[in-house]
Amino acid sequence: xxxxxxxxxxxxxRLALPIFASDPLSSVAYATGEILLVLTVGGTxxxxxxxxxxxxxxxxxxxxxxxYRQVVHAYPSGGGSYEVVSRNLGANxxxxxxxxxxxxxxxxxxxxxxxxxxxxxxxxxSLADHRVALALGFVALLTAVNLRGVRESGRAxxxxxxxxxxxILLMVxxxxxxxxxxxxxQAPTAHLGVAAEDGKDALQGLGLLMLGxxxxxxxxxxxxxxxxxxNGVPAFRAPKSRNAAATMAVMGVVAVVMxxxxxxxxLTSHVHYVEDACQLTGLAGDCHAHTQQTVIxxxxxxxxxxxxxxxxxxxxxxxxxxxxxxxxTAFNGFPLLASILAQHRYLPRQMHTRGDRLAFSNGILxxxxxxxxxxxxxxxxxxxLIHLYILGVFTSFTLSQIGMVRHWNRTLATEGDPAVxxxxxRSRIINGLGAVTTALVLVIVLITKFxxxxxxxxxxxxxxxxxxxxxxxxxxxxxxxxxxxxGEEASRPRQVHAVVLVSKLHRPTLRxxxxxxxxxxxxxxxxxxxxxxESTAELRAQWEDGGVEVPLxxxxxxxxxxxxxxxxxxxxLTAAHPGxxxxxxxxxxxxxxxxxxxxxxQSALWLKSRLLFTPGVMVISVPWQLTSAGRADRxxxxxxxxxxxxxxxxxx
Length: 652
Description:
The structure is a single chain. The protein is 61% helix and 6% strand. The chain has helices spanning 13-26, 28-39, 50-74, 80-89, 91-123, 131-147, 150-180, 206-219, 228-231, 240-268, 295-304, 310-343, 361-377, 382-386, 391-414, 418-449, 454-482, 507-518, 533-545, 563-576, 594-597, 602-611, 627-632; strands at residues 193-194, 280-281, 496-501, 523-530, 552-556, 581-590, 617-625. The strands form 2 sheets. Strands 5-4-3-6-7 form a 5-stranded parallel β-sheet, with helices on both faces. Strands 1-2 form a two-stranded antiparallel ribbon. β3, α18 (507-518) and β4 (523-530) form a beta-alpha-beta unit. The protein starts with 12 loop residues before the first helix and ends in a 20-residue tail after the last helix.
């Protein structure tokens, strides 16, 4: 796609919702389960806390969505939390947010894909032994789809997201209607007891408070991905801010309704969901070999008449699919944020480059590699991965809301219009409430999850922060070193001394000598290294018989090295002629097959790599195309990137 076609990739709201909001929407498939996993450490004694914890998550979701709607309107250029914090709190806090979000995006892919695979295994237990392979395969598939471009990925992911929303709402409504008519569904685990872990059946006081806070922190996984819309405002159709804000409002309402419905249904149907299946009492068979069904699977089975009903398989299919596709939120958010960071010189510039389909291909590939490594290392286990989750997102939530409060303070200090001041004051109250709330949640998450693995996310974010500062220092140092001073003119060497490297007298050597003579250097010599005396004597004879006018210098090499004598000779030239330029001309073969590169030009490659570090030396390659290179130069029918690189294509 041509650069001017970028406008055709902009998204209407109906496609933006599944692209940017699939993560928070799909998190209802595991957020309730994470709450139950924590509370059942005390058996069933503490499940009465579930509705209060669920209510807290719903309230927090509402506050965060309202707060980020202010961000979308105030900063429509994209960047979301990173831009807000950088502009209002400074570069270093902005990098903290950026590092936290990049880590969280990687975790989003890992957790979403692992959870999707879990739901597949809930329907087809025989897949349990292939958990990691399935997870890595889905990451590869998501990568391939996203490399096709944002709009194409939106079309591919829209239907599963809307089907998931419909399936969950159908399940919740059906279950609540049955409950209202006295035929409440019963989960497959309702008849099983739950054994409390040692010492966890009689928690009181501080112990009970910590258990509740830990469950609340786990339930807050429902909020992951909420900020992705604020990062992706530039991808919306005009009016961008209004469309993005509307999409965020729809996302918030739908996510709250689904999460509340699933949590209520799980309580009324008596779902028992534990971290270790051996906690379940009354379980038939070996508990160690038992594969638990997810909360969504248990609810679908209880509402729709068992684990062999058509609607059960439909719910499981769309849940697994949307959980895997929920990683697409990160596949859009991570490359966009990385592109902005690269533009600000905090990441390598390649991250800012769009690929052939106008997607940020390098960012997509980097995310896929990082998420794939996590899935492989943690064996695609959701329980292990979830502890690394949400810490980063609440760091960005908190700092961005503090930044927005400062933004409104500046607006109120300079604005005289009463209507604008009133809107700014309301927005400041919303963002202030959001800052306080998310800061409290961040402290809770940090305390309750730090020792369970969240410290790894902290370490990763710190290392990423240090790396980005190092990248910026490098780019700043290079820019300062390369800057042209006032009145500075192009420096011209007094003389040019040309050195043509020779191994044999053949056509590539003659071309290199001819090129050297064409630009008329002040001195010109051919240089060869005496590795084998017989070959050197033969070259001398050919040189004299051929009547080559350029003098041939033979460098002694008692240890049969090629690179060191040439580098030493060139350095002697630069030392003897300070202020002059030395041009080292290297004849090279151009081959057409990858395996031919292994057979040619190895000495030339090593020589060039050494000579490039010598001040005052210019290394010039003179190519000689072999027959295979001529065949390889023929245009391919559908070579990737051929149009962007200006290459001709056949059959177009």
